[in-house]
Amino acid sequence: MISDELRNRLRYSRLRIPRKANDDVLLGVLSLHDPLGFESAGKDLVAFFRGPDAARDASDALRARRVRHELTTDIAEGDPLEAWRAASRPFPVGRRFWIDPGDPGGAAPPSGRIGLFLPASRAFGTGGHESTRLALLALEEEALDGRTLLDVGSGSGVLALAGAALGARRAVGFDTDADAVFVARENLRRHSFGGRVGLYAGPLAACAGQFDVVVANMLPEEILPESRALLARAGKRGCVLLSGVTRDSEPAVLDRVRTGRWKLAGRRTEKEWVCLSLHRG
Can you give the pTM of this predicted structure? Predict the structure, then answer.
């Protein structure tokens, strides 16, 4: 007869969620329930859990946020930890960044690259999503040394940290999800430049002042209602970077933000995702 302990060791549970630009927040919610790890499977995000109770708790948390998902428990053991190992492998982004989602204390980044340490086992928004990568590439193209940056919907804080790493004298990130900000603050402590990043939980309306660079990695339905406020947060010579835009929604977003002195200065794409760079004319 197989003991309960052995049966639990031979089984695991899985949550499958359609991927969105705000995977940062979803991963943050899931990370509070001790997942084994995450992986991308086509257009879905998959989270693995050892026990069914943790998976059900995570499912309840998603349901409370009205996030569509599929829960499967009591799956025969294959190698679910392979998903965690895959999610924990460091990878380069652009010319300068080295994203390390492994446990703290890993190997140093290759020479010439800036390490961003965002543990996948606890944090979220490690730079693996296309929209996050596009935003990082766009930040590389901006002259950030000595400037200020606002990261709208910061999730793990990866874009605010990237701005500080590229020389921004001050970066501010915020998210309406308090769980996101809690984990992002842990990430700041892993970086020597994290002291130049400030975080808060709340809406854009709670942020005062203007910034040289405003970056928003958000879904189109989140960008459009805030478009005027986003543009207003950029200074006279500022720029706004909008990632998380889908190809289908790009015309509507451009119609809303390419007004007055704002001109489209750059456009990057990966699969269905678009990042728009807007400068004042």
Answer: 0.73
